[in-house]
Design brief:
The protein is built from four helices and 24 strands. It is mainly β and 502 residues long. The protein starts with 22 loop residues before the first helix and ends with a strand. The relative contact order is 0.16.
Length: 502
């Protein structure tokens, strides 16, 4: 029996999607430029032109770091709050799995409102809510998303943020081994990479001890990465996701020490808690006759705990190149033989970026090494769901072993561990012209080990200061037993967007 569990989409860009959001779509405010990859959200959408590629690749999305009162607004001239946002319409068209025809993957309208209180010497606040109506995948309804809602407090060298927030770690582009804090929702169809990020409730603080900054994060509530719904074989279904109750002893805790010098910036980090991406585990198996009731197999998305030790750096080689790197060692605490838990691995990224006039490029290499690796080949026998009604209790163990073998192979694809050593390359290119009104860009990802690739071409045109038009595509390809091969038909699509910013 083959479980086509395309929930493997969850490591979409091999090891955590890195945002490249244009500031025209969600420009951040109060951004700590020295550490653009460590920011946590607060968009102010007001940029008059598409952002440059290097802004996109390094901005960490529409996210900002809690900053001290040095940027406080003069109370005599400040407004009590600012309100801005956007309205947009999107349409995604892709292909029908197993057929030579197209289908509508998404069609919706969305309104985003972002409110920020005036910054004082003691703090400020921010909230963003989005209302989306229309088709997303297999659902057509109204979606309400409270993206972020938090307050900042400033007390001398200490900055504190409390509430629902998006936290992005890492300095590399697209691939961030150290980024394991807040989850992603792959069900959201959007031309903007940052839109799939989810906020989570927690606390984040900074202590400034120049040239060092000490960062601490605590997330008491586990919020998993969300996956798109996929078809399952007969008798097989998803059960409710395993729930991890909020407990002080089981919350996610993380720390990061930054060194910020004129010539180089770097940080070391450590994290312990539940991984955002859960594995797949069979939690129920009932073999009965064809009726009263029929056989059933239930698969549950089950979280696991892990520890991640990370390092990243960024430095400029004069005016020639900006070089950045990132690495992380991941050690799950649960037994990897349970199937829904990955094996220990180390991931490393090295990249450089340069601007050639109107053309900007970011090129990177990523490697992954898996410890104690062994290939999961799937079940030794093929189990046709149609034969399940004929199997009695004596064969329950055989059925269980077969299904667990299928899930072990699927989880290995999901966790991007189908080879002991992997080599991946990424290139992001962007050209800006026509008096900064036209932007042509693309991100390409190639896994040279598994022969998977991803291409995301996009054309953006600024009609005026408020109105933007986007045309593009998100194309996945790979062998049938790889991540991109599984999600090709489900997620590959072309799109068009009209966005009005206010």
């Amino acid at each position: 029996m083959r479980l086509a569990l395309t929930s493997a989409v969850a490591s979409l860009l091999v090891c955590g999607t890195r945002t490249a959001t244009a500031q025209v779509d969600a420009g951040g405010s109060d951004v700590v430029v020295a550490d653009a990859g460590a920011q946590g959200g607060a968009p102010e959408v007001a940029a008059p032109a598409p952002a440059g590629l290097l802004e996109q690749g390094l901005a960490g999305g529409n996210t900002t770091t809690p900053t001290s009162a040095t940027g406080a607004t003069d109370p005599a001239t400040a407004k009590a709050f600012t309100l801005n946002g956007y309205a947009r319409g999107d349409m995604f068209v892709g292909k029908v799995s197993g057929a030579s025809q197209g289908t509508m993957k998404a069609a919706y309208g969305e309104l985003s409102l972002a409110l920020r209180t005036a910054k004082t010497g003691h703090g400020d606040g921010f909230v963003e809510a989005r209302v989306r109506n229309g088709l997303q995948g297999d659902e057509q309804r109204t979606f309400l998303d409270l993206r972020e809602a938090y307050v900042n407090a400033y007390a001398g060298p200490v900055d504190l943020r409390l509430g629902q927030q998006i936290i992005v770690w890492g300095r590399a582009d697209a691939l961030n081994p150290t980024n394991n804090l807040t989850p992603i929702d792959f069900r959201i169809r959007s031309p903007i990479e940052d839109d799939i990020r989810l906020g989570n409730v927690g606390a984040r603080s900074f202590v400034r001890l120049a040239p060092f900054r000490l960062e601490a994060v605590w997330m008491p509530v586990y919020l998993p990465t969300q996956l798109p719904p996929v078809g399952l074989p007969q008798y097989v279904s998803y059960g409710p996701a395993a729930v991890t109750p909020p407990e002080l002893s089981k919350g996610l805790g993380a720390g990061r020490l930054h060194l910020e010098l004129a010539s180089v910036e770097m940080s070391v980090s450590a994290l312990r808690g539940y991984a955002p991406l859960p594995g797949l585990m069979m939690t129920s198996l009932k073999l009965t006759g064809m009726q009263d009731p029929p056989p059933s197999i239930v698969v549950t998305r089950t979280p696991y705990q892990h520890q991640v030790i990370g390092f990243d750096f960024s430095t400029a080689l004069g005016d020639v190149l900006t070089v950045r790197g990132e690495a992380a060692y991941r050690r799950p605490f649960d037994d990897p033989h349970r199937g829904h838990v990955p094996r220990r691995d180390v991931q490393y990224v090295l990249g450089a970026d340069h601007a050639f006039g109107a053309l900007s490029l970011i090129a990177q290499y990523m490697g992954r090494y898996v410890f104690d690796w062994q290939k999961e080949n799937g079940p030794a026998m093929t189990l046709d769901p149609a034969t399940l009604p004929t199997l009695g209790p004596p064969l329950t163990d055989v059925v269980t072993d077969t299904i667990n073998a299928v899930l072990a192979k699927t989880n290995q694809i999901l966790f991007q561990q189908t080879a002991r050593v992997q080599h991946v390359g990424t290139v992001r290119a962007e050209w800006v012209g026509a008096h900064d009104t036209l932007t042509i860009s693309t991100l390409g990802v190639m896994n040279f080990t598994t022969h998977e690739w991803l291409l995301t071409p996009r054309i953006g045109y600024r009609v005026n200061d408020a109105l933007n038009v986007y045309l593009g595509g998100q194309i996945f390809h790979g062998p049938h037993d790889t991540l991109f091969g599984l999600i090709d038909a489900a997620l590959s699509a072309g799109y068009a967007e009209l966005r009005y910013i206010f």
